[in-house]
Design brief:
The structure holds 3 protein chains of 3 kinds.
Chain A lengths: L5 H11 L1 H23 L30 H36 L3 H15 L2 H12 L3 H29 L1 H9 L3 H37 L10 H8 L8 H28 L7
Helix pairs in contact in A: 1-10, 2-3, 2-10, 3-4, 3-6, 3-8, 4-6, 5-6, 6-8, 8-9, 8-10, 9-10
Chain B lengths: L2 H33 L4 H6 L7 H10 L6 H13 L5 E2 L4 E2 H36 L4 H15 L2 H15 L17 H39 L2 H8 L4 H23 L1 H15 L4 H11 L2 H29 L7
Antiparallel strand pairs in B: 1-2
Chain C lengths: L3 E9 L8 E10 L4 E5 L6 H9 L7 E9 L2 E2 L5 H7 L4 E4 L3 H4 L6 H12 L4 H14 L5 H6 L7 H13 L5 E5 L7 H18 L2 E6 L2 H7 L2 E6 L2 E7 H6 L4 H9 L15 E14 L7 E14 L3 E5 L6 H8 L7 E6 L2 E2 L5 H8 L2 E4 L13 H11 L4 H14 L16 H13 L5 E5 L7 H18 L2 E6 L2 H7 L2 E6 L2 E7 H6 L4 H9 L3 H6 L7
Parallel strand pairs in C: 3-8, 3-9, 6-7, 7-8, 13-18, 13-19, 16-17, 17-18
Antiparallel strand pairs in C: 1-2, 1-4, 4-5, 9-10, 11-12, 11-14, 14-15, 19-20
Helix pairs in contact in C: 4-5, 4-7, 5-7, 7-8, 8-20, 14-15, 14-16, 15-16, 16-17
The chains are: A mainly alpha, B mainly alpha, C alpha/beta.
Chain lengths: 281, 328, 539
């Protein structure tokens, strides 16, 4: 158990993982692009700035699309959308999953049974189809997409937290807390939850990646918020010109891949750094 | 201990557990109908304005739309559980018939994907675990991480770009070349050719997942006590791997594969949309533009049903792989 | 010629560990048909020694120097293939935890058959007959059924018998037994020890028996080798070592073993402090319809704890002793019955009503690792209780430092985290936490069973002195009748949720009434040795 060596030990273990450091660098660049998009590419990314189908690496860095819109500007503004949606959806989903998982894991028996049936139910229904239905019915918007992603991604969190909570619940220090006279809420949130933070953080980081994939797939199917630029939308719009203008699909796809990859790498680095014992396999 | 009896009991239990799930999905569908824009009758009729007034009146009667909400729920569920999913005016066909038409191609795609993903995933995972720390392990692991991060639809488009548009090796869209009127064996070959790209696309993500899982699982099993016992018996390392570790290591992969069928169905929506594969996913994709909510919900209901059935099947298979059946 | 001869064996640990060698310069011989016990505390290197002899060292460890000769062949010079051919046929091994040592997906029959398939050219029929024969030889009931059973379908004792059958099916000349009875209940342990002894005599097998328990040594060993920090500190005939140990470490280990002779009776008060009447507890698991199981853990248990005394609750696993302890301090809700304490019936009190009573009854737990929250400093953990009951933080922390001193820990321990302490120190922290609320009753659930014998003696001594100083009354749950003899004034024997015997410790030990109590006492390993040497006494 090395949780107490503080930030230094954590940072040194994290930086020993090359992939994680590379991931952090890539993500850093993407986040920087997303934050500075309004400065780098002022104005509406939907408006035409050049001729249609201008080749990349000439007048515009990544070329223009069928309406003469700058692909690079689209990518920068799309990064904002993807990261924003993914972050908010992940936070909601983590809170929901942790709450349900904690309750279910701490109260075995009826409460657990009921909540787990609910979780299994949400896990049984095909999650992406459910997300499509939700967004279609609520009408595509950032809000509806966030809701849809949160609704379909909390069950694995709940299961994970429940499992960890049950393992902790069996530890005798919890019984010691009860016999000291501590209230359940105090035990769950003050005593146990801090011990569960590392698996939750690791899962959370990987969920951001999943959320980006779901968001881009929704936008690709035409279920993106029509008012904001997104990578999935760019690919969906560019696919009709695959033969003549490959860059319309290729670049946004790479952007998604790099973002998701970097987040996954960071997640693995976090996992190694926060749960060192798993490394000894 | 009668193993067969336990198996039977286990499957029976799972069947019983599936019932509330089906009820839940039906109730969920009902609320989604009410959440959809427009009044429920419009939603149930499909594309707004396209249904005849007589049909609308009939709908209102059938679903009791002038009744209180709980009565509506009751009649909606009765209809749903009889698999009466309504009528799609857009397609001019009952929803159930439409869906059943499209079920075959989707099942074909999912089966081939599952076989490729699980089969190749287990082999690659085994291969990587045997050479853990060597360059071949690193390559497999790196490829797995990359595939794990790539959006399916983009892989599909890039494969089309390379293998269909540039190299002209494989067909890009559809399930078969309809205008050629192939029959018999030729038709099978034609469908198989069309199947390659969608299968590769859809399986890539799961392939990566199962490869990583299998690798980790084998490495974990290697440290178990029973492996030491086998060594103490004089079993060779080969024998330990194939007779002892392999079966134990495959169990989590099977569990995961069963768990993933729902997600895979979702992935097939995207893949079918990319490749014009005439399955449920493409149908769902088309409803998005037509705002044919009732058809969409029908697809949702039936695909959930499908996942429940597949999960039952996986549970059944599992009882043959692992004697420790938990009658939870 | 000895069957096995180990000379000057050195096994290197991977760098970065707390010491460079797991085994350091160990030499001994083992003749055919003798049992040599290697005894030592955790970390003594005894298990590594066993694995080295079998050629089963984990890859990270390597033999640096020394020789191991088996019937005159130098094992360390053999190729891996040659060693493998020996394993299972000439030399076998049995392990501590048969559940994990058996492959969960293969039947018992198949796992024994595998040995025959590897090492012989017998036909299927012949192999089947041989498997049946060995299962009968290890006295498994209904071998026809066991052959087809999976490991999880039979009991722990049966699994260990199956393990032994697997190790002995080819009649090896040499057997390594690595703590084979540690995971078993005392009565099962006695049966397995008897079986090993019988088979050893019938087959003339040389056995290297690894254990931490001097009782087991006294029971089975012809000779005993004592290990400490990787070195062999003493080797000799069992009677001699047990009677007159030469090395100081051996002496301290033997002295730390609690005697079976109950300690002298203290002046008994009869005033009853806590009374339990007809307590019932049923565990239900599983779903509503199918596969639901119920376990009747407590079937109308009654007890009475006299002020200032220690009541021992003893029994094997599944007897309900831990459940009883947890019901008494309301960690579990009992289904019916009464727990009378200071004019309250604890059963049915709400949490708010219970709060003031909680301070009066505190618990000490078994697991030195799980019983402390890894994220809290020691001082916070000890101060927590008083703070919950209204003491100010400063006052509670000041008191915590005093308590640390009381339980024999340095004041510098206060601001460290649990993982920085050894098992014995953690138990001391756990005791300090319980004492912080100044309880009247201490319920201790197997407080020393996870500890090495020398640490165990220290913790028991501490508990005793605290009990004296603070005038505590104690309920002491244990499976270990030796510990119970030294700690308890009265003893309650439990079996399958029922109290089968209750009485003063001296009475119960000298004149057990119930057949189960007699069986338990009979099963204690090293009984004979104990009766021969009643001199040693703890605390």
């Amino acid at each position: 158990m090395t949780e107490h060596e503080g930030f230094k030990g954590f940072a040194s273990r994290f930086s020993r993982n090359k992939g994680a450091v590379i991931g952090l660098l890539i993500l850093g660049v993407i986040v920087f692009l997303a934050l500075t998009a309004p400065l780098l590419y002022p104005g509406n990314p939907f408006s035409a700035v050049g001729e249609p189908f201008e080749l990349p690496f000439e007048r515009f860095f990544l070329g223009t699309d069928q309406l003469g819109r700058d692909v690079a500007a689209g990518l920068a503004h799309g990064a904002r959308t993807s990261l924003l949606i993914a972050l908010i959806a992940t936070l909601i989903s983590l809170c929901l999953g942790t709450l349900i998982g904690c309750t279910s894991g701490y109260y075995p028996g009826k409460v657990d049974n009921l909540l787990m049936r609910l979780t299994e139910f949400f896990q049984t229904i095909p999650s992406f189809v459910f997300a499509i239905v939700l967004v279609a019915i609520m009408q595509p918007s950032i809000m509806s997409i966030v809701i849809a992603i949160s609704v379909v991604t909390w069950p694995p969190v709940a299961r994970l937290v429940r499992g960890e909570m049950m393992a902790m619940r069996r530890r005798e220090f919890v019984e010691a807390c009860i016999s000291l006279g501590m209230r359940d809420a105090q035990i769950i949130f003050q005593e146990i939850l801090p011990n569960l933070l590392s698996p939750i953080i690791v899962t959370g980081s990987l969920m951001v990646a999943t959320a980006i994939l779901i968001e881009s797939a929704l936008a690709f199917l035409g279920l993106g918020d029509p008012n904001v630029m997104s990578w999935g939308f760019m690919i969906g719009a560019g696919r009709s010109f695959l033969r003549s203008a490959w860059w319309l699909c290729a670049f946004p796809g790479m952007a998604i891949m790099l973002t998701v990859l970097s987040i996954n790498l960071i997640g693995e680095g976090l996992n190694d750094a926060l749960n060192p014992r798993l490394k000894n396999l | 201990m009668n193993h067969f009896r336990q198996q039977l009991l286990f499957v029976l239990k799972r069947l019983i557990q599936a019932i509330p799930v089906l009820w839940g999905i039906a109730i969920l569908n009902f609320f989604l109908v009410h959440m959809a824009p427009g009044n429920p009758a419009d939603v149930l009729a499909g594309e707004a304005g396209s249904a005849t007034p007589e049909y609308m009146a009939m709908l209102r009667a059938q679903f009791g739309l002038d009744q209180p909400l709980w009565k509506q729920l009751l009649s909606y569920m009765t209809n749903l559980l009889q698999l009466d999913l309504g009528y799609s005016w857009r397609h001019g066909m009952p929803v159930l018939e439409l869906i059943l038409d499209r079920l075959g191609p989707t099942l074909l795609l999912m089966t081939s994907t599952l076989l490729v993903a699980v089969g190749v995933g287990i082999l690659l995972g085994l291969f990587a675990a045997l050479r853990v720390g060597q360059w071949r392990d690193s390559i497999i692991s790196t490829l797995a991480i990359i595939s794990y991060a790539t959006p399916l639809f983009w892989v599909g488009l890039m494969l089309i770009l390379v293998f269909s548009l540039k190299l002209d090796l494989l067909p890009a869209t559809g399930m078969e070349n309809v205008i050629m009127f192939y029959e018999g064996w030729d038709r099978v070959v034609d469908i198989l050719q069309h199947l390659i790209l969608p299968t590769v696309t859809l399986s890539l993500f799961y392939l990566a997942l199962y490869t990583r899982l299998m690798r980790a699982s084998i490495l974990e099993q290697h440290g178990m006590d029973y492996v030491v016992t086998a060594r103490a018996k004089g079993v060779s390392e080969r024998g330990i791997l194939y007779r002892h570790i392999l079966k134990n290591a495959i169990l989590p992969v099977v569990t995961m594969a069963g768990f993933q069928t729902g997600a895979m169905l979702g992935g097939s929506v995207v893949v079918e949309a990319v490749f014009g594969w005439p399955g449920l996913g493409q149908l769902a994709f088309q409803t998005l533009f037509a705002r044919d909510y009732n058809l969409l919900l029908g697809i949702f209901f039936l695909s959930s049903l499908l996942v429940v059935l597949i999960n039952l099947l996986v549970d059944l298979i599992y009882t043959f792989l692992d004697p420790r059946i938990e009658l939870r | 010629m000895p069957l096995l001869s180990v000379q000057n064996l050195k096994v290197r640990l991977p760098s970065g560990g707390d010491r460079p060698y797991a085994v350091r310069g160990v030499s001994f011989d083992l003749s055919p048909d003798e049992i040599v016990c290697v005894v030592g505390e955790s970390g003594s290197g005894k298990s590594i020694l066993a694995k080295t002899v079998m050629g089963l060292l984990p890859r990270k460890l390597s033999v640096e120097s020394g020789t191991i000769e088996f019937e005159g062949r130098s094992l360390l010079e053999l190729r891996e293939g040659q060693r493998r051919a020996l394993r299972g046929e000439q030399m076998s091994m049995i392990f501590q935890e048969p559940m994990s040592a058996l492959n969960p997906l293969h039947t018992i029959g198949r796992q024994i058959d595998e040995v025959l398939r590897i090492h012989t050219r017998l036909k299927r029929r012949e192999r089947e007959a041989k498997v049946l024969q060995i299962l009968e030889a290890v006295k498994l009931p209904d071998p026809q059924h066991i052959i087809k059973a999976f490991p999880h379908e039979i009991s722990g004792g049966q699994r260990q018998r199956a393990m032994i059958a697997m190790a002995l099916v080819l009649g090896p000349k040499f057997l390594v037994a690595d703590e084979p009875t540690t995971a078993l209940d005392v009565t099962t342990q006695a049966e397995i020890l008897r079986l090993i002894r019988e088979i050893q005599q019938a087959q003339k097998t040389g056995i290297l028996f690894i254990t931490h328990d001097f009782g087991v040594v006294a029971e089975v060993a012809d000779r005993v080798a004592v290990m400490k920090h990787g070195e062999l500190v003493e080797l000799g005939r069992t009677e001699e070592v047990l009677k007159s140990p030469q090395h100081e470490y051996t002496r301290s280990l033997i002295e730390a073993v609690p005697s079976l002779h109950p300690r002298p009776v203290r002046a008994q008060k009869t005033e009853s402090l806590l009374e339990v009447r007809e307590l019932q507890k049923v565990f239900r698991s599983g779903g509503l319809l199918l596969g639901a199981r119920t376990v009747h853990a407590l079937k109308g248990v009654s007890l009475s704890l006299a002020r200032g005394t220690t009541l021992g609750i003893v029994g094997e696993s599944g007897s309900g002793k831990s459940t009883l302890a947890r019901c008494i301090i309301r960690l579990l809700e009992s289904d019916s019955g009464e727990i009378r304490y200071a004019e309250h019936n604890l059963v049915g009190l709400s949490n708010a009503e219970l709060l003031p009573i909680r301070k009066r009854i505190q618990m000490v737990f078994q697991d030195p690792y799980g019983s402390l929250n890894p994220r809290l400093t020691v001082v916070r953990m000890i101060a927590q209780g008083p703070m919950l009951h209204g003491t100010s933080r400063a006052e509670a922390e000041r008191r915590a430092s005093e308590l640390l001193e009381l339980v024999g820990l340095d004041a510098s321990a206060a601001h460290r985290y649990p993982h920085e302490f050894s098992g014995g120190q953690r138990q001391r922290i756990g005791i300090a936490r319980a004492l912080a609320l100044e309880p009247e009753i201490l319920v201790a659930d197997e407080p020393v069973s996870a500890l090495d014998v020398s640490v165990q003696a220290q913790v028991l001594r501490l508990l005793e002195s605290i009990r004296e100083r603070l005038h505590l009354s104690m309920i002491f749950v244990t499976h270990d009748l030796r510990v119970a003899a030294q700690v308890c004034d009265s003893i309650m024997v439990m079996q399958r949720g029922e109290v089968v015997e209750f009485g003063a410790t001296t009475e119960v030990y000298s004149n057990p009434q119930h057949p189960y109590t007699q069986k338990l006492l009979e099963a204690i390993p090293g009984k004979m040795w104990d009766q021969a040497a009643p001199a040693t006494q703890t605390p």
